Amino acid sequence: MSTSKQGKVFRITTFISDLRTNLIPPSSSSHLENGHRSRRLVIVGDVHGMKKSLEGLLEKVGFDKGKGDHLILAGDITNKGPDSPGVVDIAIRLGASAVRGNHDNAVLDAAAEIAAKGGWDQFKGLIETFNAHEHSSDNMPKDTVPTEGSEKTESATPNITMRHGPTTYRTASQLSARQIEWLSALPLILRIQLPHNIPCTLGDNIVVAHAGLVPGIPLEEQDPHAVLHMRSLARKPGGEASLTPEESSGEEGWAVEWDRWQEQLTSRTTVVFGHDAKRRLQLGKYTIGLDTACLYGNQLSALVISTTDVGIEHRIISVDCADTPVAPKSSAKEDDKTAVDK
Ligand SMILES: [Mn+2]
Questions:
Q1: Which GO terms fall under molecular function for this chain's record (predicted)?
Q2: Beta pairing partners, 300
Q3: Which terminus has fewer CB within 10 Å in the chain: N or C?
Q4: Given the DSSP bridges, would you call strands 232-235 and 243-246 parallel, antiparallel or unpaired?
Q5: 251 vs 4, more confident
Q6: How close is the Cα of 27 to the center of ligand 1, in Å?
Q7: How far is the CA of 101 from the centre of ligand 1 (A)?
Q8: How far, in Å, is the centroid of ligand 1 from the Cα of 75?
Q9: DSSP 8-state symbol, 246
Q10: From ligand 1's centre to the CA of 275, what distance in Å?
């Protein structure tokens, strides 16, 4: 199952990254100079450019890089919200780790397209022409404009196809070269090996992936498109073994199947993910879903992992959205209908 489905995944520089050992909570709390408040992992769900909410969450967590706290972003760091450059700047300043989300992927793709077409000033004109045309014809598909030979021949129709929604292009244009470079270097999967000689209900490893993973398939062989987009699993009729990742919500999330699979293993892996704002906080046995729909005005959430006297502990800390939210249906739909970033 290594063939990528529909939808392009922007050039991947690192598929799987391993978190540096010196950032992982230690095997004993006596190694900590300041009790359990030091050297924590703080994994945050879909920020989407909601900078004030991220700042508020870090404040509530008491995040302190000086004490060894390490920030990890679970993807969809950028796009749709008010300040994607600001959020990327926070991540860079704090030396955060992160994985790529489908929206980050779309922003990277859009940035490359803008650069290839002569920069934002030129590209902006293209978008404006496209939008003006789109609004004047309701019968058109949302993300394509007919080329020559279409039955609707309109002389004003520009011969272009928009791969993304206007919001995605705008976000791409707002990011600096350095911010784009940081975003493009993010892995699709971040692996965290937990200390083994200490009690921990999360298993031996944590894996951070934006949307999800298919049970039974090695990390190296996961489909990149599915890692960025999946929400559920479909079971092929008659085939217990074959689970197909689906973007649709389905009756139950993929995480239910992952939990079942982990129960059968001796070495277990907890997946921390985002992407599923509809299901909000998901607390499975070996799956933790952190997209609590901050973008839509709900909450931004962090999984905080730390070493205490009794073992590796984890808890969820959330804050109410502190930014101007995006309307769940209208504008979300507009951007979600594009070819690459749905
Ligand atoms: Mn997403």
A1: endopolyphosphatase activity; phosphatase activity
A2: 319
A3: N
A4: antiparallel
A5: 251
A6: 33
A7: 5
A8: 7
A9: E
A10: 4
